[in-house]
Amino acid sequence: MSNTLPTAIIGGGPVGLAAAAQLVKRNMPFVLFERGAHIGASVLSWEHVRMFSPWEFNVDSAAKDLLLETGWIAPEQDQMPTGKELVQLYLEPLSQLEQIKSFIHLESTVKAIYRKGFDKMKTAGRNTAPFMIEYETQGQKLHVEASAIIDATGTWLTPNPMSASGNFADGEKEHADHILYGIPDILESNKARYAGKNIVVVGSGHSAIQSLTLLHELKLQVPETTIHWVLRKKNVSEAFGGGENDGLPARGVLGSRANQFVQNGNVLVHTPFLIAQIKADEERSTLSLLGTKDSQDYSIDKIDEVIVATGARPDFTFLRELRYSADSAIESVPQLADLIDPNLHSCGTVRPHGEAELRQPEKNFYIVGSKSYGRAPTFLLATGYEQVRSVVAALAGDYEAAREVRLNLPETGVCSAPKSLLGENEAASCCTPKPKKLTFKPITVTTASDCCGSPQNDKEPSCCDSSK
Ligand SMILES: Cc1cc2nc3c(=O)[nH]c(=O)nc-3n(C[C@H](O)[C@H](O)[C@H](O)COP(=O)(O)OP(=O)(O)OC[C@H]3O[C@@H](n4cnc5c(N)ncnc54)[C@H](O)[C@@H]3O)c2cc1C
């Protein structure tokens, strides 16, 4: 394969752009495809939401170095940006850097990636064939060759439906004009839609609680607003998180607030409610949600609007001709599953990991960023930045740098893991209760001890070498 071919980055979110910065720092050619008309398109769909991690954790180190060279003024380390500020103050200037700008293709949706001349089944010679990327832009189908692929497409564009079946609930598509997925801008652009209405929020994660917080604010302004909260969890307290033990105080506050809204009666909880159907009420001006609660038929009637925040799932459709693997439960990169499995950890903390853990069966293909976590909701940008630093080091042949993984993450302070699951490993679990901490020392892990599959490149020593 020609070594002048670029690395193709799919997705121009924070992690895709960090990969671009890492490649610039190593003087390696790249091309970046972004579906949206703007860089950070998915972040912009939650632009009104304030992040819970401060700037300190939100800027990639290679990107920062490049930006500082041009006189960029870094935002205050301890301030928490909104999604819009993340894009305007950081991603946008990064994307405009001379070394990056001309390699970004906006409004370019990647539809398929494959090895040139190879279908998925064909093995001999596969690793030396270039990748082909098929993308659509302005109604045209185009192709480009690449030496490596970094898939940083996130999961935001493929939200889970409201039904626990994984499929849309009956009527979910039919009543789509009364349903929004994610975190709508409740206090500004969608205010008229929600003010004084009967609204149901479905889901138990941070996104659901963000929407409840905004709706609560709206209810203080327009008291006729009614807020219902539907959870599949048995007990609503499981959704409250680590509270003041959370290493990111703003994230901890989210759960504490939700608790307060439930206690003061402003949020009506329905749990464990499994939704099966959404249908128009008899008078046809409102909707009903139907399903089961504790195995009994259950419904909420006279609803105007539903906000679905039941998480998101990775999209593998454009990878069909590549040899990729994903964990059967979490749909994450397989080696990450044990680190982020919500059955074991409700923590945002994850052991430092890099290129070795992110390897796919297809050589020089990596899934990074929030997509690497699959359905687990605990991804943090700092994790993704370290992932792409390590991946790009390996692509550059700098295996020492690829293996030395450093990560400095705040913890959630949550312990949700049953002792039976943790067993002897409880002490090592990130869910072990810890005293409140706001900052953490970087942990350095050389993954030589974390045996990690076969080397990607002929020159690379195997970390499974028994002499180690
Ligand atoms: C409301 C909210 C608040 C969050 N707050 C924090 C926080 O405080 N701290 C923190 O560390 N993390 C936070 N996160 C988690 C995480 O950091 C973000 O989700 C982050 O945006 C993930 O970055 P990413 O680059 O992996 O993916 P994304 O930001 O989702 O970017 C993926 C990009 O790929 C593009 N794309 C998708 N498919 C294609 C395709 N086929 N072809 C071309 N382009 C494509 C999309 O348009 C998008 O721009 C938050 C997440 C949400 C939703």
Describe this structure in words.
The protein has 14 helices and 18 strands. With 468 residues, it is an alpha/beta fold. The chain folds into 2 domains: 7-157 and 312-464, FAD/NAD(P)-binding domain; 176-308, FAD/NAD(P)-binding domain. A hairpin with a 6-residue loop joins β12 (273-280) and β13 (287-293). The longest helix is centred in the middle third of the chain and has 16 residues, at 206-221. The chain starts with 6 loop residues before the first strand and ends in a 22-residue tail after the last strand. 43% of the residues are buried. Residues 413-468 have low confidence and may be disordered. Flavin-adenine dinucleotide binds next to α1, α2, β4 and α12.
Write out key terms for the chains shown:
468 residues; FAD/NAD(P)-binding domain; 2 domains; 5-stranded parallel sheet; 14 helices; 18 strands; disordered C terminus; binds flavin-adenine dinucleotide
